[in-house]
Design a protein that fits this description.
Two copies of one chain form a homodimer.
Chain A (H helix, E strand, L loop, with lengths): L5 H21 L9 H13 L4 H7 L4 H13 L3 E5 L7 E5 L1 H22 L4 H18 L4
Antiparallel strand pairs in A: 1-2
The structure holds a DNA duplex.
DNA sequence: TGATATAGTTAGCAAGGCTAATTAAACTTC
DNA sequence: GAAGTTTAATTAGCCTTGCTAACTATATCA
């Protein structure tokens, strides 16, 4: 066992806690009937509004060909619309349909309620610490200038 | 937009913070040359010691056939050993080799140092809040009795 | 106008998830 | 102790999702 500093030890525990949290939350997503990458891409369109394929690929940190296929699947299920951008006819405009928006909201609500149910077992002081920690983590992980 | 309770709002932010944290940390894993599922399975063997394929599959929350293939790949790269359990000859005993252990430690160290580097931008009070939050999250997410 | 750049798609590969079916060993039950 | 059942692991075959390379179509620039 290599010796870890105090901060490295914290980093290690933070990492493993994040993994376990997401593993449990992910189980809830199965009931949307959507595979993870599709659900995630749909979520970006619902919350981020209409955008091009390249923008969506960048947001999801995947390459355009990967997103092109995910978009194919979402379109054929009627969850998003793909139209040609008339100002630049090379580009497409992607946007969630009513159906896609509804499905996403159901899934999101289920996942949030699942996590909230667990968080409700804590007291206010504990939840407040999580709140502070989220702020600190976001500050720590923010892109350096 | 559906209205979320205070706790649900916290759940939502916690979820998205965990996603972003892991996305950034994962980038570090590429330099091990191991795909994510393989790295994760190897990690369980290094830290959890020798175990059967079923146990490893359960630990990784995948089905045995999935783990069987991951184990094939790790074995053919010389990172783990697969031997027959002499007390139950249906079962195998999986354990990390020296080489597997070394590679895992390098990757883990890199990931932890990456996170620690970010955490070091915070002050002691902020880190202490993260520490408290980890404890609270673990308490909240623990399997109910 | 011709060259270059950009948006998106297609083709083809690898990893990793699954279920169903198979094999081999262990256990149960009479 | 032979027959049936259960269990551990594997094999086969499917789908999703990541990638690069190569292509098409449109836009931009010199």
């Amino acid at each position: 066992m290599a010796k870890l500093s105090k901060i490295e030890e914290l980093a290690d525990r933070l990492h493993s806690t994040a993994i376990h949290l997401l593993r449990q939350a992910r189980v809830q997503d199965a009931s949307t009937g959507l595979a993870p990458a599709r659900l995630s891409a749909l979520s970006v369109l619902v919350f981020g509004g209409a955008m091009s394929l390249n923008e969506l690929a960048r947001a999801e940190q995947v390459r355009p060909p990967t997103m092109s296929r995910i978009v194919d699947a979402l379109e054929s299920e009627g969850l998003i619309r793909r139209t040609v951008n008339q100002l630049d006819r090379r580009a497409v405009v992607l946007e969630a349909t009513e159906k896609g928006t509804a499905i996403l909201w159901q899934g999101r609500k289920r996942r949030i309620k699942f996590l909230a149910k667990h968080l409700s077992r804590l007291n206010d002081a504990e939840r407040s610490k999580i709140d502070d920690a989220i702020k600190a983590i976001q500050k720590a992980m923010a892109r350096q200038s």
